[in-house]
Amino acid sequence: MQRLKTRLQFQATLDGGTVARTPHFAMHRLVLAPAAAPLTPVDGGFVAKPLIVPGMVWLGAMVPKRWARRAVTRNAIKRQIFSVATSFEPQLPLAAHVVRLRAAFDRKVFVSASSDVLKSAVREELHTLFERASRSSA
Q1: How much is the pTM?
Q2: How large a percentage of the chain has pLDDT more than 90?
Q3: Dihedral angle sign, alpha carbons of residues 88, 53, 136, 22
């Protein structure tokens, strides 16, 4: 599994559309056809090098500060996203995916910034998200 790294890769994938949602997460997917892969812009023109190379599973994680204030929480959520994605990789289509946190976890319920309870809640919801996304690809 390759990781999305640049802003352009994330923007292209987000434009692909939402394939699954849970109360806290959304998954976006951009199906990569070899001829239709987005090209890398350079100095007013485009280079023939694809922005996202087709034929692989790509994944990016967006955990905005708006929804997870503390860095330790954002990093814990990102680690959970990549960990769960690794277990679902064989079921995902060869495309670019972005998992986006779209709502905050209640700080009254999850008092600690990086507790085992928060991690297990995140992991459980991510399993649901990836199951829905893998069903939508079939």
Answers
A1: 0.84
A2: 62
A3: positive
